[in-house]
Amino acid sequence: MQLIESIAELRRARAALTGSVGFVPTMGALHRGHLELVHRAASEQQHVVASIFVNPTQFGANEDFARYPRDLARDLAALADTRVSLVFVPPVTEMYPADATTRIDVGPIAERLEGAHRPGHFTGVATVVAKLCHIVTPDALYLGQKDVQQTLVIRRMVRDLDLPVRVVVCPTVREPDGLALSSRNAYLSPAERALAPALFAALDAVARCFAAGEHDADTLRELIRQRLAASPALVVDYISVADPVALRELDGLVEHAVVSLAATIGRTRLIDNIVLGTP
Ligand code: AMP
Fold it and tell me: How many Cβ atoms are within 10 Å of 116's Cβ, its own excluded?
Protein backbone atom coordinates (compact mmCIF):
# COMPACT_ATOMS: atom_id res chain seq x y z
CA MET A 1 0.00 0.00 0.00
CA GLN A 2 1.40 3.35 -1.08
CA LEU A 3 0.68 6.58 0.82
CA ILE A 4 0.47 9.52 -1.60
CA GLU A 5 0.07 13.22 -0.77
CA SER A 6 0.35 15.01 -4.11
CA ILE A 7 -1.94 15.01 -7.14
CA ALA A 8 0.97 14.56 -9.56
CA GLU A 9 2.28 11.52 -7.68
CA LEU A 10 -1.21 10.00 -7.44
CA ARG A 11 -1.65 10.39 -11.20
CA ARG A 12 1.68 8.65 -11.83
CA ALA A 13 0.87 5.75 -9.50
CA ARG A 14 -2.65 5.43 -10.93
CA ALA A 15 -1.30 5.28 -14.49
CA ALA A 16 0.85 2.33 -13.46
CA LEU A 17 -2.20 0.31 -12.32
CA THR A 18 -3.46 -2.03 -15.01
CA GLY A 19 -7.04 -3.27 -14.85
CA SER A 20 -10.10 -1.86 -13.14
CA VAL A 21 -9.96 0.57 -10.22
CA GLY A 22 -12.51 1.06 -7.45
CA PHE A 23 -12.34 4.28 -5.45
CA VAL A 24 -13.46 4.85 -1.85
CA PRO A 25 -13.42 8.51 -0.79
CA THR A 26 -13.45 9.10 2.99
CA MET A 27 -12.75 11.74 5.60
CA GLY A 28 -10.81 9.24 7.74
CA ALA A 29 -11.52 8.17 11.35
CA LEU A 30 -12.19 4.88 9.61
CA HIS A 31 -14.65 2.35 10.98
CA ARG A 32 -16.23 -0.89 9.74
CA GLY A 33 -18.61 1.08 7.49
CA HIS A 34 -15.67 2.50 5.52
CA LEU A 35 -13.90 -0.85 5.48
CA GLU A 36 -16.97 -2.57 4.03
CA LEU A 37 -16.78 -0.16 1.09
CA VAL A 38 -13.11 -1.09 0.63
CA HIS A 39 -13.90 -4.82 0.79
CA ARG A 40 -16.74 -4.47 -1.70
CA ALA A 41 -14.48 -2.51 -4.07
CA ALA A 42 -11.77 -5.16 -3.67
CA SER A 43 -14.25 -7.93 -4.47
CA GLU A 44 -15.35 -6.21 -7.68
CA GLN A 45 -12.24 -4.43 -8.99
CA GLN A 46 -8.62 -5.33 -9.60
CA HIS A 47 -7.32 -2.35 -7.61
CA VAL A 48 -8.68 -0.16 -4.83
CA VAL A 49 -7.74 3.46 -4.22
CA ALA A 50 -8.92 5.15 -1.01
CA SER A 51 -8.69 8.80 -0.03
CA ILE A 52 -8.58 10.38 3.39
CA PHE A 53 -9.37 14.07 3.21
CA VAL A 54 -11.36 16.13 5.71
CA ASN A 55 -12.85 18.41 3.10
CA PRO A 56 -13.16 21.95 4.51
CA THR A 57 -15.62 23.14 1.83
CA GLN A 58 -18.37 20.77 2.98
CA PHE A 59 -18.37 22.11 6.56
CA GLY A 60 -20.38 25.19 7.54
CA ALA A 61 -18.75 27.98 9.54
CA ASN A 62 -20.24 26.72 12.82
CA GLU A 63 -19.67 23.04 12.15
CA ASP A 64 -17.06 20.59 13.41
CA PHE A 65 -14.27 20.90 10.82
CA ALA A 66 -11.64 21.80 13.45
CA ARG A 67 -12.59 19.05 15.88
CA TYR A 68 -13.46 16.35 13.31
CA PRO A 69 -11.60 13.19 14.48
CA ARG A 70 -8.25 12.71 12.71
CA ASP A 71 -5.96 9.72 13.33
CA LEU A 72 -3.94 8.97 10.21
CA ALA A 73 -1.71 6.33 11.83
CA ARG A 74 -4.74 4.34 12.95
CA ASP A 75 -6.45 4.73 9.57
CA LEU A 76 -3.36 3.53 7.70
CA ALA A 77 -3.09 0.53 10.02
CA ALA A 78 -6.72 -0.35 9.27
CA LEU A 79 -6.19 -0.01 5.51
CA ALA A 80 -2.96 -2.04 5.63
CA ASP A 81 -5.11 -5.13 6.34
CA THR A 82 -7.13 -4.56 3.14
CA ARG A 83 -6.41 -4.77 -0.59
CA VAL A 84 -6.01 -0.98 -0.99
CA SER A 85 -3.15 -0.18 -3.39
CA LEU A 86 -3.02 3.61 -3.04
CA VAL A 87 -4.10 5.87 -0.18
CA PHE A 88 -4.42 9.49 -1.23
CA VAL A 89 -4.04 11.90 1.71
CA PRO A 90 -3.67 15.36 0.18
CA PRO A 91 -3.09 18.49 2.26
CA VAL A 92 -5.86 21.10 1.94
CA THR A 93 -3.56 23.38 -0.10
CA GLU A 94 -3.03 20.58 -2.65
CA MET A 95 -6.79 20.21 -3.23
CA TYR A 96 -7.64 23.91 -2.95
CA PRO A 97 -4.99 26.36 -4.14
CA ALA A 98 -5.65 29.77 -2.53
CA ASP A 99 -7.21 31.20 -5.69
CA ALA A 100 -9.50 28.21 -6.51
CA THR A 101 -13.06 29.46 -7.10
CA THR A 102 -14.84 26.80 -9.22
CA ARG A 103 -17.74 25.01 -7.49
CA ILE A 104 -20.25 22.37 -8.59
CA ASP A 105 -23.90 23.17 -7.88
CA VAL A 106 -26.04 20.06 -8.39
CA GLY A 107 -29.35 21.97 -8.06
CA PRO A 108 -32.54 21.41 -6.02
CA ILE A 109 -31.70 17.92 -4.73
CA ALA A 110 -28.70 19.44 -2.95
CA GLU A 111 -30.90 22.03 -1.23
CA ARG A 112 -33.37 19.66 0.45
CA LEU A 113 -33.02 17.92 3.85
CA GLU A 114 -29.30 17.96 4.74
CA GLY A 115 -28.78 20.77 2.22
CA ALA A 116 -31.44 22.92 3.91
CA HIS A 117 -29.82 22.45 7.31
CA ARG A 118 -26.25 22.67 6.02
CA PRO A 119 -26.24 25.35 3.27
CA GLY A 120 -23.42 24.77 0.80
CA HIS A 121 -22.65 21.30 2.17
CA PHE A 122 -23.37 19.42 -1.06
CA THR A 123 -21.60 22.00 -3.20
CA GLY A 124 -18.52 21.14 -1.17
CA VAL A 125 -19.20 17.40 -1.47
CA ALA A 126 -19.87 17.48 -5.22
CA THR A 127 -16.84 19.66 -5.90
CA VAL A 128 -14.43 17.48 -3.95
CA VAL A 129 -15.82 14.20 -5.34
CA ALA A 130 -15.60 15.55 -8.90
CA LYS A 131 -12.01 16.65 -8.29
CA LEU A 132 -11.10 13.30 -6.74
CA CYS A 133 -12.70 11.43 -9.65
CA HIS A 134 -10.68 13.47 -12.12
CA ILE A 135 -7.50 12.78 -10.19
CA VAL A 136 -8.07 9.06 -9.52
CA THR A 137 -10.04 8.24 -12.73
CA PRO A 138 -11.71 5.19 -11.16
CA ASP A 139 -14.02 2.77 -12.96
CA ALA A 140 -16.36 2.67 -9.96
CA LEU A 141 -17.01 4.88 -6.97
CA TYR A 142 -18.06 3.15 -3.72
CA LEU A 143 -20.38 5.11 -1.42
CA GLY A 144 -22.38 4.24 1.71
CA GLN A 145 -26.19 4.21 1.91
CA LYS A 146 -25.73 5.82 5.36
CA ASP A 147 -25.42 9.18 3.55
CA VAL A 148 -28.32 8.61 1.19
CA GLN A 149 -28.66 12.20 -0.02
CA GLN A 150 -24.95 12.28 -0.77
CA THR A 151 -25.33 9.16 -2.94
CA LEU A 152 -28.21 10.77 -4.86
CA VAL A 153 -26.39 14.09 -5.29
CA ILE A 154 -23.31 12.29 -6.62
CA ARG A 155 -25.36 10.04 -8.90
CA ARG A 156 -27.00 13.17 -10.32
CA MET A 157 -23.65 14.92 -10.81
CA VAL A 158 -22.11 11.85 -12.48
CA ARG A 159 -25.06 11.65 -14.87
CA ASP A 160 -25.34 15.38 -15.59
CA LEU A 161 -21.60 15.86 -16.16
CA ASP A 162 -21.10 12.51 -17.96
CA LEU A 163 -18.37 11.45 -15.56
CA PRO A 164 -17.13 8.05 -16.76
CA VAL A 165 -17.60 6.29 -13.42
CA ARG A 166 -20.12 3.79 -12.07
CA VAL A 167 -21.63 4.62 -8.66
CA VAL A 168 -21.96 1.65 -6.30
CA VAL A 169 -23.93 2.18 -3.09
CA CYS A 170 -23.20 -0.22 -0.21
CA PRO A 171 -25.54 -1.00 2.73
CA THR A 172 -25.31 0.91 6.01
CA VAL A 173 -23.16 -0.89 8.60
CA ARG A 174 -24.64 -0.73 12.10
CA GLU A 175 -23.73 -1.43 15.71
CA PRO A 176 -25.55 -4.42 17.24
CA ASP A 177 -28.10 -2.02 18.79
CA GLY A 178 -28.88 -0.53 15.37
CA LEU A 179 -26.90 2.73 15.57
CA ALA A 180 -25.35 3.45 12.16
CA LEU A 181 -21.56 3.58 12.40
CA SER A 182 -20.27 7.12 11.98
CA SER A 183 -17.00 8.88 12.71
CA ARG A 184 -19.09 11.41 14.66
CA ASN A 185 -20.32 8.72 17.10
CA ALA A 186 -16.98 9.30 18.85
CA TYR A 187 -18.35 12.66 20.06
CA LEU A 188 -21.16 11.00 22.06
CA SER A 189 -20.89 10.82 25.85
CA PRO A 190 -21.92 7.45 27.35
CA ALA A 191 -25.36 8.90 28.21
CA GLU A 192 -25.79 10.28 24.68
CA ARG A 193 -24.57 7.02 23.15
CA ALA A 194 -27.28 5.21 25.14
CA LEU A 195 -29.94 7.43 23.52
CA ALA A 196 -28.60 7.24 19.96
CA PRO A 197 -30.15 3.85 18.98
CA ALA A 198 -33.56 5.57 19.21
CA LEU A 199 -32.97 6.91 15.68
CA PHE A 200 -32.77 3.53 14.01
CA ALA A 201 -35.43 2.10 16.35
CA ALA A 202 -37.86 4.72 14.99
CA LEU A 203 -36.94 3.90 11.39
CA ASP A 204 -37.26 0.21 12.09
CA ALA A 205 -40.72 0.75 13.60
CA VAL A 206 -41.74 2.50 10.37
CA ALA A 207 -40.37 -0.38 8.29
CA ARG A 208 -42.47 -2.84 10.30
CA CYS A 209 -45.58 -0.65 9.99
CA PHE A 210 -45.03 -0.35 6.23
CA ALA A 211 -44.63 -4.14 5.95
CA ALA A 212 -47.89 -4.53 7.89
CA GLY A 213 -49.69 -2.38 5.29
CA GLU A 214 -49.45 1.25 6.53
CA HIS A 215 -48.31 3.19 3.45
CA ASP A 216 -49.60 6.72 4.20
CA ALA A 217 -46.64 9.13 4.13
CA ASP A 218 -47.98 11.47 6.84
CA THR A 219 -48.80 8.58 9.16
CA LEU A 220 -45.29 7.17 8.72
CA ARG A 221 -43.68 10.58 9.43
CA GLU A 222 -45.92 11.01 12.49
CA LEU A 223 -44.97 7.57 13.81
CA ILE A 224 -41.28 8.58 13.79
CA ARG A 225 -42.05 11.95 15.36
CA GLN A 226 -43.92 10.25 18.24
CA ARG A 227 -41.18 7.65 18.78
CA LEU A 228 -38.48 10.34 18.92
CA ALA A 229 -40.57 12.60 21.17
CA ALA A 230 -40.14 9.92 23.84
CA SER A 231 -36.47 11.02 24.09
CA PRO A 232 -36.61 14.78 24.83
CA ALA A 233 -32.79 15.01 24.76
CA LEU A 234 -33.01 14.26 21.06
CA VAL A 235 -33.66 17.40 19.00
CA VAL A 236 -35.09 16.52 15.59
CA ASP A 237 -33.94 18.53 12.52
CA TYR A 238 -36.16 16.75 10.00
CA ILE A 239 -38.16 13.60 9.39
CA SER A 240 -38.63 12.85 5.71
CA VAL A 241 -40.55 10.36 3.58
CA ALA A 242 -39.34 11.21 0.09
CA ASP A 243 -39.02 9.83 -3.40
CA PRO A 244 -35.79 7.84 -3.84
CA VAL A 245 -34.37 9.85 -6.76
CA ALA A 246 -34.95 13.57 -6.15
CA LEU A 247 -35.86 13.37 -2.43
CA ARG A 248 -39.10 15.33 -2.83
CA GLU A 249 -41.47 14.85 0.11
CA LEU A 250 -44.27 12.41 -0.69
CA ASP A 251 -47.97 12.67 0.17
CA GLY A 252 -50.64 9.98 0.27
CA LEU A 253 -49.88 6.31 -0.23
CA VAL A 254 -46.26 5.45 -0.99
CA GLU A 255 -44.87 2.31 -2.61
CA HIS A 256 -41.18 3.18 -2.68
CA ALA A 257 -39.58 5.83 -0.48
CA VAL A 258 -36.48 6.92 1.38
CA VAL A 259 -37.27 7.57 5.03
CA SER A 260 -34.56 9.75 6.49
CA LEU A 261 -34.02 11.79 9.61
CA ALA A 262 -31.49 14.02 11.32
CA ALA A 263 -31.34 14.76 15.02
CA THR A 264 -28.96 16.36 17.46
CA ILE A 265 -28.01 14.77 20.76
CA GLY A 266 -26.09 17.25 22.89
CA ARG A 267 -23.64 18.78 20.38
CA THR A 268 -23.64 15.82 18.01
CA ARG A 269 -25.74 15.73 14.86
CA LEU A 270 -26.64 12.25 13.62
CA ILE A 271 -28.40 11.13 10.43
CA ASP A 272 -29.88 7.81 9.37
CA ASN A 273 -32.25 6.40 6.75
CA ILE A 274 -33.99 3.32 5.43
CA VAL A 275 -35.59 2.52 2.09
CA LEU A 276 -39.19 1.30 1.97
CA GLY A 277 -40.52 -0.89 -0.84
CA THR A 278 -38.80 -1.85 -4.06
CA PRO A 279 -38.45 0.23 -7.22
P1 AMP B 1 -17.14 9.84 5.57
O2 AMP B 1 -15.74 9.48 5.95
O3 AMP B 1 -18.06 9.95 6.73
O4 AMP B 1 -17.21 10.99 4.61
O5 AMP B 1 -17.70 8.59 4.75
C6 AMP B 1 -17.01 8.06 3.66
C7 AMP B 1 -17.90 7.03 2.99
O8 AMP B 1 -18.21 6.00 3.92
C9 AMP B 1 -19.23 7.63 2.51
O10 AMP B 1 -19.57 7.06 1.26
C11 AMP B 1 -20.18 7.19 3.60
O12 AMP B 1 -21.52 7.07 3.16
C13 AMP B 1 -19.61 5.82 3.95
N14 AMP B 1 -20.07 5.41 5.28
C15 AMP B 1 -19.98 6.11 6.43
N16 AMP B 1 -20.57 5.45 7.45
C17 AMP B 1 -21.06 4.30 6.92
C18 AMP B 1 -21.78 3.19 7.44
N19 AMP B 1 -22.14 3.13 8.73
N20 AMP B 1 -22.12 2.19 6.61
C21 AMP B 1 -21.78 2.25 5.29
N22 AMP B 1 -21.10 3.25 4.73
C23 AMP B 1 -20.74 4.27 5.53
Answer: 12
| Cα–ligand 1 centroid distance for 252 (angstroms) | 32
Spatial CA neighbour of 254 closest among 246, 264, 244, 263 = 244
In ligand 1, the atom with minimum distance to the C-alpha of 29 is 2
C-alpha closest to that of 174 among 207, 190, 196, 141: 196
Residue 34 annotated in active site:
yes
Three-state DSSP at 35 gives helix
Enumerate domains of the chain plus CATH numbers. 2-170 (3.40.50.620), 183-273 (3.30.1300.10)
The reported pLDDT for the residue numbered 278 is 87
Which one is catalytic: 34, 47, 121, 215? 34
By most ligand atoms within 8 Å of CB, the mutation choice from 24, 30, 34, 269 for ligand 1 is 34
pTM, to two decimals: 0.98
Give me the chain's average pLDDT, please: 98
Residue 142 CA: nearest ligand 1 atom is 10
Quick one: average pLDDT of 187-192? 98
- Structure confidence at residue 279 (pLDDT): 77
What is the 3 state secondary structure string of 106-167? CCHHHCCCHHHHCCCHHHHHHHHHHHHHHHHCCCEEEEEHHHHHHHHHHHHHHHHCCCCCEE
**Pocket residues: Cβ below 6 A from ligand 1:** 26-27, 33-34, 36-37, 143-144, 146-147, 170, 172-173, 180-183
pLDDT tens, position by position, 213-237: 999 999 999 999 999 999 999 999 9
Q: What is the pLDDT of residues 24-80, one digit of tens each?
A: 999 999 999 999 999 999 999 999 999 999 999 999 999 999 999 999 999 999 999
